[in-house]
Amino acid sequence: MKKLxxxxxxxxxxxxxxxxxxxxxxxxxxxGHYADGFLFELTVLxxxxxxxxxxxxxxxxxxxxxxxxxxxxxxxxxxxxxAQMLILGQIGLHQGYAQHRxxxxxxxxxxxPLVRILYYVEAYLFPNYISKNILKEQPVLSASKxxxxxxLVF
Length: 154
What we know:
Layout: H1 2-23, H2 25-31, E1 39-44, E2 50-56, E3 59-64, E4 73-77, H3 80-87, H4 93-98, E5 102-106, H5 108-125, H6 128-134, H7 145-153
Helix pairs in contact: 1-2, 1-3, 1-5, 1-7, 2-5
């Protein structure tokens, strides 16, 4: 059951990245740190659960579970439980990193813009009562959460 929830959650997270990039100029600015085609991977350690996405123009493009090329940057969750906690907003990225719940594989300097982008995505996706507990600092959002949800669905 955890595997299915994490697989759905990772896809939802990537859709959130795509949607937030369409409405948030700060995310588009952070995307400037990546070349077109820069390949990202979110995965669970030693499992087949993974999603790939790439930087494309001013946003992200979902690529699915299988890509022939190695990822430029991978976020590897150490267990399904860890991925579930982060996806459901039980812990934030900074807390998960401090507790060594995931591994960053690739250029660490290239990981920092993604972390900042994920802060925005969490702020858009989660209600305020959750995001205030999992984010170190609430980012100032340029668009309404409703607009981001619209792009998430359509």
